[in-house]
Each structure stands twice: as C-alpha cells, then as structure tokens.
Amino acid sequence: MENLIRFGGKFFDELEIAVYRSRDVSASVELNEISMASSRSGAVTVIRGIKDKRLGLAVIDSDEPERIREAIEQAAKMAKLNSPDENWVSLPEPEEYRRKVKPNYELKDVSPDALVEKLVRGIKLAREKDENLIVAGGEGGVGWEESRILNSHGIDISQEGGAAFFFLEFVGRKKGIVTPGIFDFDARRNLNLDVEGVVERAVQKVRWAYNVEKSRNEEVPVILGPWAIAGLLSYALFPAFSGERLIKGTTPLADRTGERIASEVLTIYDDPFHPLAIEPIIADGEGVPTRKNVLIEKGIFKSFVWDNYWGRIHGTGSTGNGKRDTGSGGVNIGFHSMVIEKGNRTLEDVVGEIKRGYLVDGFQGAHSSNPDNGNFAVTANPAFLIEDGEVKGASVFLIAGNIYDILKEASEVTREQTVMPFMTTMITPHVKFENVRIAGK
Amino acid sequence: MENLIRFGGKFFDELEIAVYRSRDVSASVELNEISMASSRSGAVTVIRGIKDKRLGLAVIDSDEPERIREAIEQAAKMAKLNSPDENWVSLPEPEEYRRKVKPNYELKDVSPDALVEKLVRGIKLAREKDENLIVAGGEGGVGWEESRILNSHGIDISQEGGAAFFFLEFVGRKKGIVTPGIFDFDARRNLNLDVEGVVERAVQKVRWAYNVEKSRNEEVPVILGPWAIAGLLSYALFPAFSGERLIKGTTPLADRTGERIASEVLTIYDDPFHPLAIEPIIADGEGVPTRKNVLIEKGIFKSFVWDNYWGRIHGTGSTGNGKRDTGSGGVNIGFHSMVIEKGNRTLEDVVGEIKRGYLVDGFQGAHSSNPDNGNFAVTANPAFLIEDGEVKGASVFLIAGNIYDILKEASEVTREQTVMPFMTTMITPHVKFENVRIAGK
What we know:
6-stranded mixed β-sheet, 22 strands, homodimer, 9 helices, PmbA/TldD fold, alpha+beta, globular, 21% helix
C-alpha cells in the first residue's frame, strides 16, 4: 500500500487510499417462515487525490494493487478535468489514536445457520405465546468489516470488527382487529442476541394493540421509545449539528453555542467507545481519531461536529466525524454512536405516574422533517394510550411541531438504554415529554 | 452448472439456480465538477429449492461452483426448518423463447472516462448557454449484465446485454430567484447518449423557471411529462396490474377486465422488445419467456400480469413478469418496459392550444400513493404555467385525487416518446389530461 501512495505521488500533491473489506451474513423471515439466507463479502477501495486543489475521486470494488493503481490513474484524469476547489486546505495529518477495542472474532466467520436458528426460535416462541400472531417479517444479520486508511501525510490505520443485529415484526389478528406491524430488535458485538427479550417485548405490544382506543385532540405527556426517538431525531435534529450546515447557513443552531436548546434532563453525545456501541472505531473514514463529542449537555448546546474538509475550512479541524460512504466514495459529516444519557427510574415507574398520555413506539413520516428549522409532522404508530398509569390500548395520532419546542418539554429519561442499529445508530432510554399537542385520527 | 442441478437433486424435488454477473461503471457530478468515477463488478447466485413444498432460498455473491454447492446445502437446511407452503405448485417448465436481440458489446468494457467526458461536455455546454446556471448534480452510467437461469425441469437460458444512461440536474439563480432542481435524461442501448438534447431541454426549463407564477385553485388541462408520468403511475397505478394483488384482494381492478378504466387515447403495455427498450430480455428472472402484455387498450383494462408462483396458483401461469431481486433473492411481479402508445401531434402543438393550464415535469410525494384504491396526493414541481399556448413561468401546486378519475380525463398523447430509466422503466409520450383540479400553493 505504501508504494501505491508513492506511485500516486507522480499525479497528486496529496493522496488518500481507503480500503474496506466486508462480510455480511443474514437470514430473513416472511410470514412465519425463513424466506432467505444470504452470505456476501466484498472489497471496495476509494482513491481521493488532490492536485493543485483539483479533486479526483475513484471507487473500485477490489483491493488488488493492480486495480488500485488503475483507480489512481482514473482519479488523476478526473482531477485534471475539474476546476480547483479554492476552499481546499489539506487531507488530515497523523494524530494519536486511543487503544483499539478487541474485536470479537467469533463474528468473523459466522454461518447464516446461526441466524436461521435464532429466527426459527423467535418465531416458535412468539407463536407459542400468542397463537393469533403472525411473524410478518424479521431479519438477523452479522456484519464484519476490515478497513485500512492511508494518506500521503503518513496516516496509516487498520481496524476490524463486527456486530450482530436481530429484529422481528409481528402482526396480531383477533376479533376483527388487525394490529399495525409491531417491531422489536437487539444489536450487540456478540452473537448472544436477546431473542427471548425481543419476543417478550413485541408480544406485550401486540397484546396492548388488540384493544384499539380512539385518539382525540389534546395536550398530554408522551413517552417516546427508542425507535420513535431515533426516527424523529435522525431527521429533525441531528443534521443541525453538522459543521457543513453551519458554514452553509442551513442550521438553526448557528450562534447558539452555550444556549439552552433542550430541557436539562437531556444530555446527548456521540461516543463510539460507549460500552453498548456496536462499532467502537478509533479512527473515522479519513483516519482522524474519533472522540466523545458532547452535543447537548443538560440542555445546553455545546458544539458542532466536523469532518476534515469542512473542519479545516472552519479552522477548527475535524472532530473525527468524517463518515465514508462506500457507495459514492464521498466523506460526509455523520455520527458513530449517538447516546442519550440515561436516568434513574424504570419505564414502568414513569408510565405508572401518567394519568392520561401516550407511549409512542414508532413514527411514520419522520424522514420528511426539515432540519433547517426543526419542523416536523409525523404519525405516531404504533402508539399506546396510557390511563391511570397503565397502557389501555393502541391509538394512532399526528404530532406536528418543532423539535426545539419539544426538546424543552423533556421531563425524564428512563434507566434502561436500548441500542438502535437503524437510521443513526443510537443508544437511548425512553424519554418523556410534557404538554405534547396531538391531533387525533 | 448442470451437475450442480444434479447435486441439488439429493436435497430437493425441484431446484433453480440463477447466476447474475454485472459490471457497472459510472461518473457523477456535484456543483459543476466531476465528483466521482466508479467501476464495479460482481456476481450473485440465487438458489431456490423446494422439498415437500418447503422452500429454501440462499443468496451468495459468487459464481464459483464450490460456493454454489455450499449455497445449495444452505438452502436445503433452511427448507427443512420451514413449514410446507400448501399453495406451491411447481417451478416453470421450458417453453420456446423469441430470438435474442444482439447485445451491443461496445458497452461491455466501457471505461468511466467515456462517461466523465460526456458529463464534462454537458457541464460546459450548459454553462455556456446560461451563466446563471449551476449543474447541481448528474450521473452517467453504463450497466452490463450476464445471467444464466437453470432449473431441474430443463430450463437453461443465458442472456447478456447492457444499457447506458445519463442525467443532469440544473439550478438557475437570477434576480433573487432560485429555481427548483430541473432534470433531464437519456437512456439507450449504445453510448451515443444525447448530451446536447439533455442540456437543451433542461436549459429551456430553467429559462421558464426564472419567471415564477403563483398558482391558484382551479380546474385546468394539465400535460404530464415522462418523469411525472413514471412517478405517478409507478406508485398509484402499475401495482394494481399485479396478479398477486388480485389473489390477495388488494387491487381495485378485480373483476374489471374488459371494462373502461381510462380514456380511449390511452394504450399501455409492457414490452421488452419495443425498439427503445433498454433491456430487451427474452426470459424473465425465472426463465419464463417474456412477451408483450397489454394492460390497457384504448382505455379498456385487458389483463393482469403474473410471475410463476402466483400465476400457477391462479391457474393461468406466468406472463413472464417474474422479476428477480438480486438483493433478497426473491422473485416479485414486475414490469420490463412499460410503454404508453404515442399519438400524432407534437408537444408543441398540444401546448399551443391550451388557453390556461400546466405542463408538469415532476411530482414529489408520488411514492405515498395508495395502489389499493388509486388515491394519491402529490406536489407538482417543477411545473410550468401555460397561457395562450405559451409557457409563462414556473409554479408549484398540489394535485390530490384518484388515478382512475384522472385516467378517464386523458385527451391526447404526443408524438415523441421518451425512455425513463428510473422507477418503473417506461417509454412514454407527454399525456394531456382535461379538468384536473389543482390546489394552488
């Protein structure tokens, strides 16, 4: 690899080579049966070269030196055709990394059988617990990734590791009621996926959903579960922390560092070293050391996050938030493992105190939120009515509002944290918000 | 391959092996510069085996016999764990194919350079024509696919071929006006992509969009362009032609064969052999011969389309519409090349007769249409106001309604057909609809 960096010196002032090798095995469920088992592996190399501030970017699906050499030449041709990017400063310089987390090699050569077995167990268990229930869908998967990132300034960092995930979707049919699709999931850095817990929690939600309660227009306390939180915040809030948006003027958080933007029960940070994190990487997609970046501390907005390109333009440098998109080859500002700090009491305790309110499991339509201003309009479904401290049944309703108004109404976070492996990877408790205006449906 | 079919006979009553090899090269544009050149290739093999009506499905990213053998064993293990599918009839039997269309081997080994060159030419041309214009995005790509589908009933069909596509997205900024993103595109079975035509058409639309006209609530004639038609019909109408939906009771077309569901100017058929089709395949994803399937003839609903599974359950057999999803390995009912029959007059003539109406280039939100009943609610953007036979400027408005009401209002199709390579691949003229109720925005 070092000699490929030297070879690239003929064409470029600066050069980066990023190699990713991955192996993914998975198995899926459809209508109570295993529908597919798959096993895939591959390599992708991304070349990023800069000559006189002109960028060349080439992507190939190979890690062979001969093909990488061709890709370097391809990137060089492209750089010649482009105009200089006068904003370009430079690729990252080497820095100290934290100590690597030991990978779990058990995940490197997993067979799809291991996942098929877990899914079959989940299906059997679920249908024993509730014969009116259909396992509409589900998937178990294990991903393993090895990466090496080098650049002409001397960065050379290799990492490897893997994670496993598992989810099931149930639909219950009883007395003419068909419940919405009810999900639960688990994700961790070993194969001990909590099949029993996933089934237990999802079956409980299906049981609640057999009773349908009409929703109405009202202002009530609402507890959001991990799936709902990840959906809403991934689209309405998290993009606002991007330094690129600060520079482009598309975040409502410009000039608000140090200001209160949420209630003091909320502390949110990005931390790949959190014990529950499923990808504990020490270097981001550009080889910059990752770190814990606090975004909101007790309700106060602390800071933006940066990749190398925008961080150098801004003058503060990267915060280790350069995420490589192996599809396009590009680097974008992103998060590794967003954590919402947990609280002291259980979800049960928090639910137990609510006279009338809702527990929202999932939101539909969160992707059309506007992170430029925080506005959103979502359908809460599945959602559950709470009366006198107990869940009474399932409801559907709309919430339209602004994420910054809602964040100020957060009143409690629960003790249990869940890993959400979808959308932005999150580790989050349930969060209770007061005075949420809902529109019945 | 034949001996792998024999090997599978140890485990299965019926077995299908589908092998896909692909090579994709592409180059992308962002903000007037080439942002990426990529070259990817790979192989995927899907094993589908049935034992005592129990299904096993395995997907691997390899075409090596040893790995295929393992995948057959994997599928066999899975079939054992599944329950019998009592609806299962059988895999397809061999049938006569049409003569293959000769592939264009020029597309097999294209370098990304060829696409970079076209994009650079497009960017240069566009900015010469309009200095206030930004080439916000764009892509040029060439895909080449080789497939072989075998099954234990004697089907063994190999196919190969490729296609090229090209699109650009422009944004104009002039006198405080920022236009919406304006797209144009081309797709064909050779490298002679119409760069000049794409630029010419898109620049014209940007020119129109510099003048913003307020929309209002009214009932007017509306002409839909290819992008708008493909968006709306792909989500609101085409799924209703699926035989699976007929059996599941989720199409409004059940029991309506032979009835008028559209105005007589509309004839719609799926035809991979159309001269403009970009994938002229003779066999579908299950090795069943493809054919021209007429869906709507002069406004009359003619027939549903089927893959092997649902077609055999229904008793009519497959219509050659089994599309393989190489991601999940599954086969779904889909379309190869949807054609809307063209008319006699040019778009210019049709526009020239409109006293007040709109020309809609694209719709937003079409994906949330409901094919169960045909209801949709979309935002027309980009859309252009026509007054006294001339385009006056750009407008944004909403159309909410039912696709079957709209189809009855079709009054003319233009002479020019365009290939739409996105969503459902379509070959379509512009279509004029009368009395469309729009909501101003």
